[in-house]
Amino acid sequence: MQVVSRRVVTVAYGEPVHHVMQFDPADSGYLYLMTSHQMARVKVAACNVHSTCGDCVGAADAYCGWCALETRCTLQQDCANSSQHHFWTSASEGPSRCPAMTVLPAEIDVRQEYPGMILQISGSLPSLSGMEMACDYGKNIRTVARVPGPAFGHQIAYCNLLPRDRFPPFPPNQDHVTVEMSVRVNGRNIVKANFTIYDCSRTAQVYPHTACTSCLSAQWPCFWCSQQHSCVSNQSRCEASPNPTSPQDCPRTLLSPLAPVPTGGSQNILVPLANTAFFQGAALECSFGLEEIFEAVWVNESVVRCDQVVLHTTQKSQVFPLSLQLKGRPARFLDSPEPMTVVVYNCATGSPDCSQCLGREDLGHLCVWSDGCRLRGPLQPMPGTCPAPEIRAIEPLSGPLDGGTLLTIRGRNLGRRLSDVAHGVWIGGVACEPLPDRYTVSEEIVCVTGPAPGPLSDIVTVNASKEGKSRDRFSYVLPLVHSLEPPMGPKAGGTRITIHGNDLHVGSELQVLVNDTDPCTELMRTDTSITCTMPEGALPAPVPVCVRFERRGCVHGNLTFWYMQNPVITAISPRRSPVSGGRTITVAGERFHMVQNVSMAVHHIGREPTLCKVLNSTLITCPSPGALSNASAPVDFFINGRAYADEVAVTEELLDPEEAQRGSRFRLDYLPNPQFSTAKREKWIKHHPGEPLTLVIHKEQDSLGLQSHEYRVKIGQVSCDIQIVSDRIIHCSVNESLGAAEGQLPITIQVGNFNQTIATLQLGGSETAIVVSIVICSVLLLLSVVALFIFCTKSRRAERYWQKTLLQMEEMESQIREEIRKGFAELQTDMTDLTKELNRSQGIPFLEYKHFVTRTFFPKCSSLYEERYVLPSQTLNSQGSSQAQETHPLLGEWKIPESCRPNMEEGISLFSSLLNNKHFLIVFVHALEQQKDFAVRDRCSLASLLTIALHGKLEYYTSIMKELLVDLIDASAAKNPKLMLRRTESVVEKMLTNWMSICMYSCLRETVGEPFFLLLCAIKQQINKGSIDAITGKARYTLNEEWLLRENIEAKPRNLNVSFQGCGMDSLSVRAMDTDTLTQVKEKILEAFCKNVPYSQWPRAEDVDLEWFASSTQSYILRDLDDTSVVEDGRKKLNTLAHYKIPEGASLAMSLIDKKDNTLGRVKDLDTEKYFHLVLPTDELAEPKKSHRQSHRKKVLPEIYLTRLLSTKGTLQKFLDDLFKAILSIREDKPPLAVKYFFDFLEEQAEKRGISDPDTLHIWKTNSLPLRFWVNILKNPQFVFDIDKTDHIDACLSVIAQAFIDACSISDLQLGKDSPTNKLLYAKEIPEYRKIVQRYYKQIQDMTPLSEQEMNAHLAEESRKYQNEFNTNVAMAEIYKYAKRYRPQIMAALEANPTARRTQLQHKFEQVVALMEDNIYECYSEA
């Protein structure tokens, strides 16, 4: 059987089906059915569309049922064991038989232990006894479940509760979490239920201002403890005192309305209370938000008075919440179910004119106008009247006679309130009714114009006790419409019509309605016309068009628009196009006379759509769009802006669904562009002007079927007339002159958008010109012979010198070739060798958090930290290593005599409470920074000491840092905001550095640590692969030009078998270079033996001896200097492996020495005038007579060794890329919350100050994180790891850090041949790194913003994680030294601050001084 045609047949949703149906005799799972106009074959049942048992059984499909153990809706034969009871639930059983489960207990106290959970399972399920069961809590957490015995209908199962450490976290601002649990049978979750885990203690945290009420109203069994001010789940934990038992018994404030108060005014506020018996007489404070705390005094048993409350605002009006709290920390608030608020107003803000100022009286603001809005004094009279209204503009200037125009009046003093102008707006004698919701006090009135008896023009007046008049006049006119064009258009819509008339620009709102309902869109109007786009019509028919002003009646004009049948496209030709497009496609069809604009687009592969041209009612021409590839694609047409739909094709369903949706049945085949050449494929064609020109153009075979009129051939700007066109040949000729001037003209052939230049026409001269050219050439040749003879005569004198110079250049060229060849070979092999040799088995020697903090906070600038590390002792442990104990004062005990301890501890405690007062601390910091002798070193020290002192309260520390940063931003914004945070010159900048170090430590350790350590290992490994001068530190392989060994020192590797006595390890094979000194060899041996031990525990090279066993009877102690050392030019050369002639595989033994030999210090400290290693210093002025060795050394340009920098860079590139990607990437499981929080803070501050320059924000972010934290870490790996950072590694890291700095910069790199190599080395990679930085900043910006509560929770967790790591008393004592040093300045600053003076902070500071004054210096001197 042959398929003649195929059509997609679907049954429309909701269409009635005939009751006569027939099963498919070949497959009973299908059914034949009929609708009113078609027949279709459909499935008997579509069970798989139901995903739940309720949907499946509730659908009442007789064929579908719920397969319980497979958890899917199936036919009965598709469910395993469906013939047995309870395995398959049919629709006849109803949804009530679906599996369900109840968990007991349904509510679990997070602080109570539970042996297990009882599961009551009901519904249609087979017996679960004996099956493999588990309770599934999600996230791959499962516990054992069991059923005691067989049962049907209602089964009981027992399940272990998920472990306490796997409890899900409580959502923010919620005291409970709902857990979904499923019963898992044979690997499938068959039934599920929810239970709740609650925590009563969180209720007071979630609802701090209704803690008691929320606790006793909770749906969990919670109890309120008045004395502890806490919510508990066990009443026995409450102290023996009366406690409320219902929400109505809770102590709470009662709502009492308060009149608005002016800013800065002092007042007493009475707060009524209820149920005060639980805390009668307790010390209370009045809280008005952040840090706005005032004393509270009991008036009687039910009223408390807030004394001398002074609130400030810079806003027009600000609402302060009033709460009562118990004295002490943390804040414990009395319940305030209906919060009291105090409105504070500022007359000087938000009232630029008299009406706005006096109008505030309705809000209770006592303001008066006197050269500005000011607070009314107690003796000042009531405010009088304001100046007459000033009307500055009215809009629009005209409206229809029927009124209804929304007239907007703008100006000043347009009334204090709406009632002042409610009946005072007039247009001549016609009233204009103000709209209450559009009225802006004093500034703007929007009113609705009333109807006018006839056309008029008059001024607008506003009467608000005094009358104001407008300069412009408002006119009432009668708009008229005359005609509409075009009168018809397709019912698909999109026709752009123009309505002609008079005075059509009037009024505030215009509508054009079609058939009284559908709007004509995209309205544009002038005085005499309205243009709009017609909507789609339902049927081909005439429809009325109505023009309405101000939603009133239609303007008379009897306008009618005829909806006609849509245009029809019947064919397009040709159907092939070159991929460049531009071929003219002819579109045939009907009713094109209604088409105003048409465009052609190609689906999937097409470029921009092209505009077509309507030729007549049946023809349209379109240039074919360009395409992205050679393929066949559907063609879309857009007629009058509407997508053309082929109604016939859609009705008959001849198209696939995608094409039917677009309604296009035409396709365009894109083929490669045609290719042309001249007949002989020459690129130059000579032609003499005046002669006839005929071109023969060869055309490659294609399938486009191009016609002769589709080719365009041009010679320069002159067209070549095409005469003959065949499949392979094109003939054309030029009839006009190409010009008398000689020159070159391109020969170009064009097909559509495709242009190809096939050759160049060279225009030649005449015969006379040729003769003249020959004469001139002969004269020039004669002169050249004479000049050549003179030149040859003179050149003989320099021939010998030239030959000598040539030999020297050839020798130098040979040497350069050899060096470049070696560098290239090294670049190809080093990466493979390094990856193979790099040993990652040793682990990463991270420093503990406390050591990371002390090294980061106090690198050089603190008096506390002067490199106080104990050197390795000479008594080594059995492993041959020594313990290096760090003795930083902040990590040890507070060493003071016991006699001084009580007063000192009391003073430090009081000083600590002062530092925890935000007002004191900010005044304290500002006061110190204003002192000229408070140097940058002191600022860094103070910031780090404050960070240690407040480490346990990072939330408070963060708030202080933010306030200080706001002051810094204000100061920077006034000068040059781009310089902010560029350096660390203030306390807050160092505080920010420390804050970033704390918050980024987890990221540093978990994400960045490994690639950073691998890079360090790779740098060290690469440096050690070549020769290293032990005295100068310069090496063959490096990233830093200043540390490059610019000599061709041949070094050969030596594999040595070394044993280390007392190390407890077998001998190892250690790789060294024959140019290594003995100290360098010892260091490599120590690294091999101690690779799994932190560097601080290694022996030093000076602590060991190295012995070589030349034979069974001979051995030598190997030293850098001995009697065999060679002397050159008066300098001793350090001994090397090559000096001792130690062969490959030699046996060496290393042992610890009891007494350190101090005759030779560290090698790098030796005097270069007496010793050298690989190279002698070359100073030609100081040494005019060079040694015999130097005079015979090959002279090579030292710059050729710069290729070794590229070799080293190429070897390390992968490790550097991995490090940069780790730093500038975001882990989904641990996003950088601190970075997001701080970047949002910067963006918020920039927005407040109107800073919209993206470069400024980029610089702020870069200065805050990459340059402030990451560059510091990149340059100082010893802050993170227990390793040895040599001077050479430090130099390489400075180049890497410079590349990172350039990557974060936004300024263009201006590089040239004279630029330093540390910038040139990574110039090629910088653009790619910059993209990564930009992407990182964008990812941070796209993260979900953090609330203050979420950030505080994160900071609290960081504080808890590292609590008790530091001795804060030591930090407090050191901070106090600054306080004592600048005591008078601090006291003066506290006296000048109103808040500090009100809270008597200066007296508390004096108490601290009194306690500490007589003790601190004595005790420290005794200590």
Measured by DSSP, the beta-strand proportion falls in: 25-35%
**Straight-line N-to-C gap:** 109 Å
Give the % helix: 25-40%
The secondary-structure class comes to: alpha+beta
Average of pLDDT: 84
Gross geometry: extended
Uncertain stretches:
1-8, 649-663, 837-841, 861-886, 1179-1195, 1416-1423
Multimeric status of the protein:
single chain
Largest sheet: 9 strands, mixed
Helix run count: 32
Number of strands: 70
Rg, please? 46 Å
SSE diagram, text form:
Blueprint: E1 22-24, E2 27-34, E3 39-43, H1 53-58, E4 64-67, E5 72-75, E6 88-90, E7 100-104, E8 107-109, E9 117-122, E10 133-136, E11 142-146, E12 155-159, E13 176-185, E14 188-198, H2 201-206, H3 211-217, E15 223-225, E16 230-232, E17 252-253, E18 261-262, E19 266-274, E20 284-287, E21 293-300, E22 303-310, E23 317-326, E24 332-333, E25 340-345, H4 354-358, E26 367-369, E27 373-375, E28 390-395, E29 398-400, E30 406-412, H5 418-421, E31 425-427, E32 430-434, E33 444-449, E34 456-464, E35 466-477, E36 480-485, E37 488-490, E38 496-502, E39 510-514, E40 518-519, E41 521-525, E42 529-533, E43 542-549, E44 559-564, E45 568-573, E46 576-578, E47 584-590, E48 598-602, E49 610-611, E50 613-614, E51 619-623, E52 632-639, E53 642-643, H6 647-652, H7 657-662, E54 667-671, E55 676-678, E56 684-687, E57 693-699, E58 712-715, E59 718-725, E60 729-734, E61 743-751, E62 754-763, H8 767-795, H9 799-837, H10 849-857, H11 901-915, H12 918-929, H13 936-949, H14 954-973, H15 987-999, H16 1001-1024, E63 1053-1060, E64 1068-1073, ...
Parallel strand pairs: 8-14, 18-25, 29-35, 37-44, 46-54, 56-62, 63-69, 68-70
Antiparallel strand pairs: 1-2, 2-3, 4-5, 4-6, 7-9, 9-12, 10-11, 10-13, 11-12, 13-14, 15-16, 17-19, 19-22, 20-21, 20-23, 21-22, 23-24, 23-25, 26-27, 28-30, 30-33, 31-32, 31-34, 32-33, 34-35, 36-38, 38-42, 39-40, 39-43, 41-42, 43-44, 45-47, 47-51, 48-49, 48-52, 50-51, 52-53, 52-54, 55-57, 57-60, ...
